[in-house]
Design a protein that fits this description.
alpha+beta; Globin-like; Alpha-Beta Plaits; Arc Repressor Mutant, subunit A; 6-stranded mixed beta sheet; 16 helices; 6 strands
Length: 402
Amino acid sequence: MDQLLPVDLREPAPRTPRSRDAPDGWEAIADLAAAVDARLDELTGRITDAVLVEIEAYRNGLVPRQDLHRSVFRNVEATLTGLAERRPPRSDELQVRSELGTRRALQGMPVDAVIQAYHVGYRELWLALVDAVPADEPQTATQLLTAATLVWQWVHEVTDVLADAHASTVRSLEARAVGARQRFVELLVGGDLDGEEVPRLAGSLGFDPVGPFLVSVLRVGGDDLDAVELQHAVDGLPGRHAAVARGAQIVCVSQSTGAADVVAAARAVFPDAALAVGSPRTGLRGARASLTDAELSLAVTDDGATATFEDAWLWATLAGAGERLRPLLADGATAADRHPHLAEAVRAFAQAGFSVSQAGRDLDLHANTVAYRLDRWAELTGWDPRSFAGLSRSLAALRLGR
């Protein structure tokens, strides 16, 4: 079973540190390495504690302490062997560090934190070597200074190969995540929710398929949008998110995050976009409904403005039924097109709380002029704007006409 583990997590074989093959004239450094190796368990514990104290990313539990302890042990052991034999890392030793870089990426550790952990380890190793120099052997201390170049060669080669493996793994993971996000959103858009693929994709992206969803849609412009920047912005928020570009729009599916946070993150990336947010709804069908909310709201949202379905539901619903309603509202749309001053009076009357006097003040007109225009609108359309039915039909016609 132990052979199935990564090399640096396997139980170490019995060590015979003084059997290392030291070159002529290098015996004093080999003895130092052997002295430190003899207390390697103690040094490993000290390095592990230092990493956990100094590097916040290692305190969040992504890397188990035993994993960190074993990796530190194997890395320091290999470095001491290379130092005693006065050589840089071999290819097999670098391969172990490459595998570690891949594992840390899969565990979600930032590469800078992993490299910082290596620096902490080499710092403590160097201090242990210095402490091991006999007080009556100043020539050994001098020779140890010459070994510093070799130690830093280990630092450089090991961290380079680790960083390369980490970056390659992150790119691969991101490519798979992008594909999964794209497919998930496309299935939501298409409404194909009956198969097993949608809940499987949702789970792979970290969503709870039966939990609440919130969908936002941005109209950005252009045909070659990249949602990566928005994805990075929302990844900094609580919960889970999937941002996908679709033509001139970006769809962002969120879970366990408030609408205000999503809007703020989106505005930081696309300050001039039209942005619409659907209502929170439960389950995958709820996600599809929230997407519809956002799409309908976006149709009545100006560039640079933000709308929520909760506030824009009336006009959004009307816009969604535009083709069905247009024949019913054609007289109003025609009147507004030919007599915009009459349409202006109807809007002002509605916004003034159905007060002709206030509408006149808002338009800088006499109240009688506003009243005449309302009467004229009623003559042309057959809809009396002073009644609820006539005013609501008039406003719907003006809105659809826009």
